[in-house]
Design a protein that fits this description.
single chain, about 400 residues, alpha/beta, Aspartate Aminotransferase, domain 1, Aspartate Aminotransferase, domain 2, 2 domains, seven-stranded mixed beta sheet, 15 helices, about 15% strand
Length: about 400
């Protein structure tokens, strides 16, 4: 059987199982309501645009100005001639924002994670990872093991006793990295950072937090999971994205001590062999960071919207996972049911995505709602009415 024939057969099986993912094409900028090709306007509850900055005029204008000032792209990797002054400005702002000494940008947070573990770890080292960490962290660890022969261990999600057991067993390793998401993207829960840091200090380990869903979201001023716990400056290394709350375009970064950023500049393969972040993206991300710093009320609005939506879902009879973030998962069990509910909601004018295996474990399929500071109360009430109608028709409430 040819490769194409085998893939066709597997795709047909996806369709029969109701797990085939159809692309939806947007015909307007990312916002609380978007125009979708062939469907008109819908309320979007599937976007990482947590603060509504994707289409914020100030952020868009900064990208346009950078296009005129620096051109469409860098045309080079960072260490040759791809480093522009806007990269330096952005990296200084990001380091300050997350409470670290320095930062280094990448074309995505996936690249930032992928560049971190294989660069820092060697055959005498170990990385200890939360069971529910993002796929980019998992792949980064796999790559590090393949390249450097380092060891790895996984601790049960948010289980500090299990983490301590893994740290105790790793006491003779040269470098011990404890790696966790700040906010877990499919669960919406927050890492137990104070406990993780305390245990890591006790066992001389280095803490790495991927704060992609926490940057711009958690803390009084949106500075992430460290600010949420009053621990700014106490996390050794932070990776995060510019593609969610911080402008929503693309890009990621690693922040930590100046020596970490410098070492990654010298040795990190995604830095050495990929073109630098486009100046337009760097400028729009910088404008987004500055806007958050000037308008912390955006973070409060986001928090209020998430609380309102979660409470109203409970009132309707749904059982969203508990949490204090704008990620509100509603567990449905089977993948086909999650896909069906998302399709019925879309027919009612609400775009929310159903997730099933292998993105989430078998039997834990869900629709994942993501709130934004840009949502109005009318947007949320419209979506809640659709949830009520669809939930009733499916016998869920």
């Amino acid at each position: 059987m040819s490769l194409a024939a085998r893939l066709r057969a597997e795709l047909d099986q996806f369709r029969q199982e109701g797990v085939y993912k159809r692309l939806n094409y947007l015909a307007s900028p990312q916002g609380p309501r978007v125009r979708m090709e062939g469907r008109g306007e819908v309320v979007i509850l599937s976007s990482n645009n947590y603060l509504g900055l994707c289409n914020e005029p100030e952020v868009v204008a900064a990208g346009k100005q950078a296009l005129d000032e620096f051109g469409a792209g860098t045309g080079s990797v960072r260490f040759i001639c791809g480093t522009f002054t806007i990269h330096r400005e952005l990296e200084a702002a990001l380091a300050r924002f997350v409470g670290c000494g320095a930062a280094l940008t990448y074309v995505s947070c996936w690249n930032a994670n992928e560049g971190l573990c294989p660069t820092l770890l060697g055959e005498h080292d170990i990385v200890i990872s939360d069971q529910l960490n993002h796929a980019s962290i998992i792949d980064s660890i796999r790559l590090a093991k393949a390249i450097t022969k380092c060891e790895s261990a996984v601790f049960r999600h948010a289980d500090m006793k299990d983490l301590e057991e893994k740290l105790r067993a790793a006491k003779d390793h040269r470098l011990k990295l404890v790696l966790t998401d700040g906010v877990f993207s499919m669960e919406g829960d927050i890492a137990r950072l104070p406990d993780i840091v305390a245990l890591s200090r006790q066992y001389d380990a280095t803490v790495v937090v991927d704060d992609s869903h926490g940057s711009g979201v958690l803390g009084e001023h949106g500075r992430g999971v460290a600010e949420h716990y009053g621990m700014l400056g106490e996390v050794d290394i932070i990776t995060s994205t510019l593609g969610k709350a911080l402008g929503g375009a693309a890009g990621g970064f690693v922040a930590g001590p100046a020596e970490v950023a410098d070492y990654l500049t010298q040795r990190s393969r995604p830095q050495l062999f990929s073109n630098a972040l486009p100046p337009t993206v760097a400028a729009s991300a910088l404008a987004a960071v500055r806007r958050i710093e000037r308008h912390p009320e955006l973070v409060r609005t986001l928090r209020d919207n998430a609380t309102y939506f979660r409470e109203r879902l409970l009132d309707l009879g749904f059982k969203p996972l508990p949490g204090g973030t704008p990620i509100v998962p509603v567990i449905l069990g089977e993948t086909a049911k999650a896909i069906q509910m998302s399709e019925l909601l879309l027919a009612e004018g609400v775009f929310v995505t159903g997730f099933g295996y292998p993105v989430v474990p078998q039997g834990h399929a869900r629709v994942r709602c993501q709130l934004s500071a840009a949502h109005t109360r009318d947007d949320l009430d419209f979506a809640l009415a659709a949830f009520k109608k669809v939930g009733t028709s499916l016998g869920l409430i």
